[in-house]
Amino acid sequence: MARGNPLISRLSTEAQKNPYANQPLDYYDGAGRATTSQAPSPYAVPNPAVAQPGPQTADAEQLNRMYQAPSATPADTRRATLNDVVAKTLSLLGLVIVGAAVGWFVPGLGFLGGIVGLVVGLVVVFKRNVSPVLTMVYAVAEGLLLGAISGVFEAQYGGIVINAVLATVVVFIGMLMLYAKAGVRLSQRMVAILGIGMIAYLVFLVGNFVFGMITGSSMRDAEIFGIPLGIPLGLIVVAMAAISLIADFQNIDEALRAGVPEKESWRLAFGLIVTLVWLYIEILRLFSYFMRSDD
Predict the structure, then answer these.
(1) Which residues contact 275 (CB under 8 A, 6 or more apart)?
(2) Where is the sequence biased in composition, kind Polar residues (predicted)?
C-alpha cells in the first residue's frame, strides 16, 4: 500500500477492519442496497434476486462477530464514494479560501489560526470518530494562517500569490491526470524514499527554526556555489509534495474500495487538504527566490 499523507494511509488501513464493508452482490446492506464486495457484513441479509449457493452456514468466528458488532445505522452502512470525497474536499477548500480572505485583511489572526489549526488538526488525526465540525474548523483556521502568510509574501513580491495558486492548481491537475489517466502508481521503493525524505525535511524545519531563533536568519539563505540553499531544497520539497498527491489518490482509492463509511469521506478530504496546503506553501516559498522584491 502506498504511504503518502500518513492520515490517509492510516484510514485506508483501518478501512479493512470496517464491519460494514466488503459485502457481496448477493447481500443487501442495512440501507437496502445490493453490495459489491467479497465478504458479507454481519448485518447483511440475503438478496432474493440472487441464488444462494447451498445451505448457508457460519463458523464460530462469524457468529461471534455478528453478536459483538454494534447495531448498524444508515451512516454506517452508507459507504463513501468518490463523489463524497470530492464534495467534502471542495467544501473544505472553500472554507480555506474564506479563511484566507479574512487572514489577508486581518493578518493578526494568522498566528491564532496557526495555533488552532495545529491543535485541531492533531485532534482530527488521532480522534477515533470523524468530526465534520472539527475538519471545517481546521479548514478555516488554516485559511487564516495562509491568508496572513500570503499577504506578507505579496507585499514583498508583487504577484507571487496568484502565481503560486496557479502553480498549485497545475501541479494538482497534473498529478491527478498521471494517476487517473496514465495509471501512475508508487512502488514500495518509491514510498520508502518519500517517507525518508519527509522525515529528513521535518528534521530540517526543526533545525532551521532553532537556527533562526539564535541567529535571526535562515539556513535556506546559505549559498552553495552562489545559489541559495532554498532553491534546490524548494525544488525537492515541491516534488515530494506533488508525489504525495499520487500517494494520497492511491490511498483514497484503496479506502473507498475497502468500504469506509460515508462519514469518513470528511477525513479523507481533510488529509488531501493538508497535502494541498503544504504544496502551496512550498511553491510560494520557492517562487520568492525568483521574483524581485518590491522593497
Answers:
(1) 4, 5, 241, 244, 245, 248
(2) 10-21
User: Which residues does 199 contact at the CB level (< 8 Å), separation at least 6?
Assistant: none
Please state the φ and ψ torsions of residue 227, each to the nearest 5 degrees.
Answer: -110, 125
Alpha carbons 180 and 248: distance in angstroms, whole number: 12
Q: Return the DSSP state at 41.
A: P
Q: Is residue 111 part of a domain?
A: yes
Cell output for 218: 535562515
For 225, left (φ over 0), alpha (ψ -120 to 50), or beta?
left
- Is the CA virtual torsion 285, 187, 268, 11 positive or negative? negative
Instruction: For residues 252 and 242, give the distance between their C-alpha atoms in angstroms, rounded to a whole number.
Output: 16
**What domain range includes position 232?**
79-293
- What digits encode the pLDDT tens for the residues 165-208? 999 999 999 999 999 999 889 888 898 999 999 999 999 999 99
Question: Which residue bears the cell 480572505?
Answer: 101
Distance in Å from the first CA to the final CA of the chain: 48
Question: Are 77 and 20 contacting, i.e. CB atoms less than 8 angstroms apart?
Answer: yes
Within a domain: 204: yes
What is the pTM (predicted TM-score) of this model?
A: 0.75
In a domain, 122, yes or no: yes
Give the single-character DSSP code of 218.
-
Instruction: Tell me the three cell numbers of residue 19.
Output: 464491519
Residue matched to cell numbers 437496502: 32
CA pair distance 237, 51, nearest whole angstrom: 55
Neighbours of 261 (CB within 10 A): 20
**Domains contained in the chain, number:** 1
